[in-house]
Amino acid sequence: MIELWYQSGDLARLRFARSPMQELMTSMLVGRRTDRARMHQPWARSVRGSVAALRLDLLRPLLDDPRYFPDFLTPTPGRMDTRFTDELDRLRATPAAVVRSQLELLGGAAPPPDALRSFYDDPDRQLGRLAAEIQSYWAAAIEPIWPRLAALLDAEMDYRADQLTSGGIVRLLGNLHPELEYAPDALRIRWPTWQTQGRLDGTGLTLVPCVFVWPALLVDIDPLAPKLIYSPRGVGQVWDGSARRPALPIADLLGRSRATLLAKLDLPLSTTQVARELGQSPSSISEHLSVLRRSGLVTSRRSGRSVLYQRTTLGTELLGAAAPGDHSARSESWSRRIG
After folding, report:
1. Contact 18, 150 (CB under 8 A)
2. Which of 23, 269, 285, 320 matches a 20 to 30 Å C-alpha distance to 151?
3. Top-level CATH class of 245-320?
4. What is the sign, positive or negative, of the torsion defined by CA atoms of 9, 68, 21, 310?
5. Distance between CA 305 and CA 220 in Å, rounded?
6. pLDDT of residue 195
């Protein structure tokens, strides 16, 4: 069991943030578990060719250890809407001493591969090379689907904010993940093969929802920036809209543009996000959304500066999609962690 002891001030500093870099790194581990590979198969199939063509000679060996990869790859996000470019800049600026100390934790007693030996000898130079590899992987594998990931993560953080408002910290943390247990003085992660304790000591805790981490819970007990990375609700839906094509009768009824738009809205998306995914102008998408909303097929709500649109139950039934309960059952089957 891992125990994170805290004081009242730590709970006051509890916050959520999304991390594009966390999604990127954990997406590279998808093939290590059959359940995770099955969940993300539509994505994996769509990027297989472009990723296979990349040279990732530094990045791949950094992720080979099944129990640990260096923390400098996933710096704790500093804000809720952290951008990938910000995280990449932080990675480039990692001090050489930090790189070396974390490389020494890889692989146990096994000697490091040649690529990592050169990294250890000259971290400043190799960090630039590593950043270039990460940038190329981002462009090929994550950037095209980032709007869908971001929409799900934003919906998750909105849901948790509602839980905090209605039930406080107890409700917020009480059902975050099946392996996480909330107690008045500590958070306990029920991993029977681990015996570790840590104290937050006023640093607070960052909660990072991550689509590709499903069904696991990851823990970073860095005393300066501790964080928990967990699977968001509804992760089973994330690829549905990208794979679904509206049936011809629905396209005849609504028009192909509106039917395609309706199929995309299984996740809450803004006008700009939908326009980017469909390659249409925001003004055209806005007009279609107004018609669908007046017809009761989509609903809208404000989130910060954006208005998010999502398909209603009526819209889902019209598309002939699975009932929402089917998706939630899938999204709750996350009770195991990376072995």
Report:
1. yes
2. 320
3. mainly alpha
4. negative
5. 31
6. 66
